[in-house]
Amino acid sequence: MTSLLILPAILAVLSRSAHANDLEDKQLTFSIHHSLDDGPDPVYLPRGTATIPLARTEDSVLHQVPLSTADVAKLRRLAENNGLYRIQVVDHQSEDPRATVSSFIEGLFGVRIWAYGLARPSRVDRERTLC
Questions:
Q1: d(CA 131, CA 127)
Q2: Of 21, 53, 75, 102, which has the fewest CB atoms closer than 10 Å, so is most exposed?
Q3: What's the domain count of the chain?
Q4: 131 belongs to a structural domain
Q5: Residue 39 lies in a domain
Q6: pLDDT, tens digit, 9 for 90 and up, residues 17-70
Q7: In this structure, is residue 116 part of a structural domain?
Q8: Contact 98/88 with Cβ under 8 angstroms?
């Protein structure tokens, strides 16, 4: 699920950062933050880092910060309460503080989230019937 939100956000930032003459040697780095708070002023915490070599995008690497047991519980409550899971991708190549792309998904509708980094994978399921 996180990958589905991260990719469009990275592509939006990437379109502003990449120049044709920089493609050979340039590597882009993006930090990824997420919010498990559903309030009006979300607190974003580190979720990972994406590194993308422009000449060989297939060698891109995504390092994820493992979710704690408390994070999994917050994520479960967020899904149960139909809250907003929010994500931000920050472009580290830009000096412009606006080089941040945000996205969200409501209630984790129809999404399964596997939290790795725990003793065993945890899963958050949210199912709805469409009328």
A1: 13
A2: 21
A3: 1
A4: no
A5: yes
A6: 555 455 566 888 889 999 998 888 889 999 999 888 877 777 888 899 998 999
A7: no
A8: no
- Do 54 and 20 meet the contact criterion of CB atoms below 8 Å apart? no
Specify the pLDDT at position 16: 55
Is the separation of the CB atoms in 122 and 110 below 8 Å? no
Strands across the sheet with 45-53, in order? 61-64, 45-53, 27-35, 84-91, 100-106
Q: Is 54 inside a domain boundary?
A: yes
Question: CA–CA separation, 28 vs 91, rounded Å?
Answer: 8
pTM greater than 0.70 (yes/no): no
Tell me, what amino acid is at 43?
A: V
Rg, C-alpha atoms of the chain: 16
Predicted confidence (pLDDT) per residue in 8-19, tens digit? 666 666 555 555
Tokens for 2, please give them.
């996180």
Query: Containing domain of residue 6, as a range?
Result: 2-65+83-109
Amino acid letter for position 20: A
